[in-house]
Amino acid sequence: MPVHPDPAPDPFTHVAAPYGSEHEFLALVLPRVRAALASGEHVLVIVGPGRLDRLREGLGDDAGAIDTAPSERWYEHPARSLHALLDYTRNLRGRRVLLIGEQNWLDRDARQTREWIRRESICNRMLASVDGTALCLYDRRATPHSVLAAMYRTHPYTLAPGPGGPRPNDGYVPPESMRLEGDDKPFDDPPVWSETIAFGLPTLKRLRDFVAARARRAGMPRDRVAALILCVAELSANAVEHGGGRGRASIWEADGEIICEICDTGGGITDPFPGHLPPPEGSPRGYGLWLTRQTCDLMEIRSTRGTTRIRLHMRIT
After folding, report:
1. What's the rounded Cα separation, in Å, for the pair 165 and 1?
2. Which residues pair with 138 in a beta bridge?
């Protein structure tokens, strides 16, 4: 039984695999893991403990040949989860890889769901040079309809239980063209209770102190304050260097988060994946947005009429 589709433009094959029963789960996963191991491929499985137990039982003696990771920890943060996959594949020394993953979409609120859907789209660029297949499992019984609809927009291939390999998906939208609801909507103005400070090169330390004091006053632990300040330092330095030499920062508390907005009028961001893809290895620049997206709970960007506004969200506790 073929495990992979006909050769694609990129060596990486990103496959959506919906299923509707435990029998279908095993029918999708078990023969493909066996085939991958028989071909000398590396296999990483990231699913819930119950399904992992069933897979191990089905594999028998071969269960020890696969790598596994707990899904509840792997799928905590979209950007860090994707970078962890990239790190994993870089350590394989040229071996082909089969990645199998399933997350619990019912644990996501609307904002989190949007970012995880975006993560599935960006995956097609982040891992484009990886020699392997990512099999993304979706339990139709426990996945919201909106997520199932998005599944067909974020995966170039689909796979059904039973014989045969993945098939090209006509509903796929390349990441460069992918738009989610709200992406083109400008931010509302910061609330009236927010605190605002203008900054430039001579006042960057004052800005960092300003943000640190506000975060500590909200009760944010020291390590999270330090992480927030690191992100503010990166973005404010970018604003000074590329945004006309000055900017404006606003900070406020809402729904258990500290939200900090960095605004400049330097012409906007043209990168279609700002902060999503790591800088090329050895590059001395381009780490600010990348580091910030890896560190914050959420980073949102809007560029309109030459003005860029970046919002950082950090949970207080």
Report:
1. 7
2. 18
Reported as a single tens digit per residue, the pLDDT across 121-130 is 999 999 999 9
The pLDDT value given to residue 282: 78
Q: Could you identify the residue written with the tokens 């509707």?
A: 20
What is the DSSP code string of 35-82? HHHHTT-EEEEE--HHHHHHHHHHHGGGGGGSEE--HHHHTS-HHHHH
What confidence score (pLDDT) does residue 242 get? 82
**How high is the pLDDT of residue 5?**
37
Q: How many CB atoms lie within 10 A of CB 267?
A: 14
- Domains in the chain (CATH in brackets) are 12-177 (3.40.50.300), 195-315 (3.30.565.10)
And the tokens for 254?
């809402």
Task: Give the mean pLDDT of 202-230.
Answer: 97
Residue 10's pLDDT is: 62
CA distance 71 to 88: 15
Q: Sign of the CA dihedral 135, 141, 143, 145? A: positive
